[in-house]
Design a protein that fits this description.
Elements (H helix, E strand, L loop, with lengths): L1 H13 L5 E7 L5 E7 L2 E8 L4 E6 L5 E5 L6 E2 L7 E6 L4 E5 L4
Parallel strand pairs: 1-7
Antiparallel strand pairs: 1-4, 2-3, 2-5, 5-6, 7-8
């Protein structure tokens, strides 16, 4: 009977958290090319055109980073899953910032 109680309790505590959406918008004047890195592994490659957005959902326990070409930092993250980020033109290179009020 005790073993049955343990088996019943495990599935409830082992349930993964709900996936949350990460959104990246390109407000810059050029195409931004990035690789999405999840827990140190490349998941996908992005080419976000000006005025367009990309979104995907992730487990909030995972470390999500963007590695981008011709941007100010080059590597951004870990990003906050469930947030919205925006690329903007900077003085010399494009930069990424967390969007506010969207």
């Amino acid at each position: 009977l005790a073993a049955l109680a343990v088996v019943v309790a495990v599935p409830a505590s082992a349930a993964p958290p709900e996936r949350q959406t990460l959104t990246v918008t390109n407000g810059a004047s050029r195409i931004v090319e990035c690789a999405v890195i999840v827990d140190g592994k490349t998941r996908t490659f992005l080419k976000i055109r000006p005025g367009k957005a990309w979104a995907d959902s992730y487990d909030p326990r995972r470390a999500v980073q963007l590695v981008c070409e011709r941007t100010k930092e080059g590597v951004y993250g870990p990003l906050k899953v469930g947030s919205t980020y925006r690329f903007e033109d900077g003085p010399k290179r494009i930069d990424l910032a967390e969007a506010t009020g969207e």
